Amino acid sequence: MSTKEATMTTQEVANRFNELSQTGQWELIQSELYAENAVSIEPEHSQGLKRAEGLEAIKQKGKQFGEMVEQMHGGYSNKPEVAGNHFAVAMGMDVTMKEMGRMKMDEIAVYEVKDGKIVKEQFFY
Amino acid sequence: MSTKEATMTTQEVANRFNELSQTGQWELIQSELYAENAVSIEPEHSQGLKRAEGLEAIKQKGKQFGEMVEQMHGGYSNKPEVAGNHFAVAMGMDVTMKEMGRMKMDEIAVYEVKDGKIVKEQFFY
């Protein structure tokens, strides 16, 4: 019996992502599925940080976003579409931000998987 | 009665894209759904043209790819996932290229819609 974990396929990473996203466990998604050197990319027109390098920076970015949230009213994360070493997810939220009021956000997120871990997340909105 | 066409929503563009892709009508997708100033972006590691600007350049790129194909054995284009002004499609093909032999390619394609037309296509593989 070996203690070595088998490397997950992209489909398996996507399945686990979906399993965790349905109950909003985004922090667990990051700590369990992301590579230490993962990169996060927002659109050019984004008003926030456009590129975060490394899991710590990505967690920090998530924390900063969380601090700007007044109230989360709802959200969704659809079933991932998998192709090769990538998967795409349509997701969104209905949120009241402290400075900007209530808004709905919808986006496509594309994830790149390498050696069983997410190495890149890229958002389109 | 007005001759002015209603601007399609992103969902409607995605539906029409899916309808045409199921029968492989890629040229019709381009001429019917793409904006004249549409942009096409391949990954950094792509061996071909990484960026094509304008519908004519995109059509030319498709033509060049077609000329490199020895035989197309099969392909698929899944149902689009729509979020906001983007939609994502998992797609792939089983193809024999003239110089490189037979291979399977799978990719995520992300489309940005503006004023009822596709203004950007971006591929992930």
Explain what the structure shows.
The structure is a homodimer of 125-residue chains. In chain A, helix 1 (10-21) runs antiparallel to helix 2. The first copy, chain A, is an alpha+beta fold and 125 residues long. Chain A is built from three helices and seven strands. In chain A, strand 4 and strand 5 (86-97) form a beta hairpin. In chain A, strands 1, 2, 3, 4, 5, 6 and 7 form a seven-stranded mixed sheet that branches. Chain A has one domain (10-124): Nuclear Transport Factor 2, Chain: A. Helices cover 27% and strands 46% of the residues of chain A. The model of chain A has no long low-confidence stretch (mean pLDDT 95). Chain A binds chain B through residues 78, 81-92, 105-108, 110, 112, 124-125, and chain B through 78, 81-92, 105-108, 110, 112, 124-125.
